[in-house]
Amino acid sequence: MRGKNQIKVWRYCPEKASGLKPAVIICHGIPGSKPDPNDQGYLPMVEQLVSHGYIVVLFNFGGCGESSGNIDMRDWYEDLFFVYDLVHDTPGIDPRSIHGVGFSAGGAIAAKLASLDRRFKSLLLMATPADLSEILPEDPVVLREHFRDLGLIQDAGFPRDINAWYRGFQEIKPVKWLPFIAPRPVGIVHGEGDGVVPVAHAYKLFQAAFTPKKITLLEGAPHQLRRDPRTTPLIIDWLKEVA
Fold first, then answer.
1. pTM for the full model?
2. 193 part of a folded domain
3. I need a labelling partner for 9 at 20 to 30 A (CA). Which of 69, 75, 80, 166 fits?
């Protein structure tokens, strides 16, 4: 429970866990469609990460999946802060080795937290926009109705102030936050076939980040990188380098 909202969190641990283990917090992006009961989501990825000895934490941002509330980028930051504190204080997790893997807007929120809180040891951004305002519809009403159609806005009176709510999306600018994450490593992964967040965003993020940093472009990969078979091995290789 975070404030008035319930944030659903899952923790997956290796079967034979002894001593302190590194943890990975996976931050999903903004859903692009209504839930598909046949879609396993991030679970195949989680299983592979756990098999390599990592404790993996999944959660639903407010308004998404099994969490309550309505989609709101300012609330999403508070959601991640809440989850991070849970992970940091969980027995068996090494608080000095907590890593963020964020997809799309979830990566953007993770970049904001990492820039303001020094406890994240590393950050891997997957198909993350450099500036969310560049890919938003110009009319906030269009955005609100789109999210209402997807079930990400449940309450009839939400948002009370549509312009303030819309500004919350416009303010998501990882390109401004990445310089403050150094000297912790930042990885950037992007699909060259991304039709939602153009690959130019990856170059902007890489240019903004200080070393150590790494960029990987996946030929032909779409926006939903979790569906690409190259993604999980890439994450595992990254964690081997930074954990």
1. 0.96
2. yes
3. 166
